[in-house]
Design brief:
This protein has about 100 residues and is an alpha/beta fold. The protein is built from 4 helices and 3 strands, in the order αβαβαβα. The radius of gyration is 16 Å and the shape is elongated.
């Protein structure tokens, strides 16, 4: 067993270059939620930020997207019509994945 120390973490998570800009360290699209459930996509998005992803976009039904957006000003939550994400939302999903 190896003890995890600050030195090990510094080797894994190196300091970012000064000229880094948004999207250099990734864009993640989280799709989830429903009228009643919003926690899982919100927590997934927040965990992605903690791990170093530059931008996270969350696509969820309107009620869920509104709740998710209130978790943090860093979360870009895009509401879709209906109670859950379906094939009719494909155009929105493709646009936001770019």
């Amino acid at each position: 067993m190896i003890e995890v120390t600050k030195n090990i973490l510094k080797d894994i998570y190196k300091e970012r270059p000064k000229d880094t800009k948004k999207y250099d360290f990734g864009l993640l699209l989280v799709i989830g939620g429903s009228d009643f459930y919003s926690g899982s996509p919100a927590l997934s998005a927040l965990a992605a930020f903690k791990s170093g992803v530059d931008m996270v976009r969350v696509i969820a039904p309107k009620r869920s997207a509104d709740i998710i957006a209130s978790f943090s000003p860093n979360l870009a939550a895009y509401p879709v019509e209906g109670s859950w994400v379906t094939k009719k939302h494909l155009a929105t999903l493709l646009t936001l994945a770019e």
